[in-house]
Write a structure and sequence with these properties.
CATH architecture: 3-Layer(aba) Sandwich
Strand content: 15-25%
Low-confidence stretches: 1-30
CATH class: Alpha Beta
Structural class: alpha/beta
Distance between the termini: 83 Å
CATH topology: Rossmann fold
Order of helices and strands: HEEEHEHEEHEHE
Number of helices: 5
Number of domains: 1
Radius of gyration: 19 Å
Largest sheet: 6 strands, mixed
Mean pLDDT: 84
Helix content: 25-40%
Number of strands: 8
Length: 208
């Protein structure tokens, strides 16, 4: 056996063991996710989103993952029960061979509707003083997708993902499309939002 591979494998196991002992959660660092339902702790260190607000991400992975495995991002409602939303989609994902990601935006870091489903774009009490884009809840999704296909499941060659949101998750999804227009979403479903953000179309008068 190549000694370099042996050392790399030992380092991987040691890192995972240290994470379990230190935090009680495993952040996958080497190889792929375990098949079936599970969760992982994700801290974005790319600079694209707030590194001080990590997410618990609930997932479902088919037994066989290929280059063509589709990725579904499922957004929870105001109850912040991402694990339940993942579970609702397991049968459909199993039938279509899709991998589910259901990130959970907890109340402690993303309190209320303004922080989660309105994107954390601004602080209401300040007269809508805007926050940097790095602080938006919307800014978590793209780097999470990159983490999946680049680190956790490099076999998957998907360049796009699909999104579904219900209730507060629906509000998140349709506003995400407005504020992240270059996001790699191929299909988005926004179901049963309490209220919607709409574009305001104004007609310009033309003098003749």
């Amino acid at each position: 056996m190549d000694s370099r591979n042996s050392v790399s494998g030992i380092a991987c196991v040691t890192l995972l063991a240290a994470l379990v002992l230190a935090a009680g959660k495993v952040e996958p660092a080497c190889g792929s996710l375990a098949p079936g339902a599970g969760s992982f702790f994700w801290d974005d260190n790319t600079g694209a989103s707030d590194p001080d607000k990590p997410l618990d991400v609930y997932y479902w992975r088919p037994t066989d993952v290929t280059r063509d495995t589709p990725v579904w991002v499922i957004m929870h409602g105001s109850s912040r029960n991402a694990d339940d939303y993942r579970d609702y989609f397991i049968d459909a994902a199993a039938a279509q061979g899709a991998l589910i990601l259901a990130p959970e935006f907890n109340d402690s870091d993303w309190s209320g509707s303004s922080s989660y489903n309105l994107g954390n774009l601004s602080w209401f009490e300040s007269g809508f003083w805007s926050y940097p884009e790095q602080d938006w809840s919307f800014s978590k999704i793209e780097p999470l997708f990159d983490y999946l296909v680049d680190v956790l499941e490099p076999t998957i060659e998907a360049s796009t993902y699909s999104m579904f949101g219900h209730s507060a998750g629906s509000q998140f999804v349709h506003r995400f499309l407005f504020w992240k227009p270059t996001a790699r979403v191929d299909v988005a479903v926004a179901a049963n939002a309490g209220w919607y953000t709409m574009m305001q179309l104004r007609r310009r008068r033309i003098s003749v």
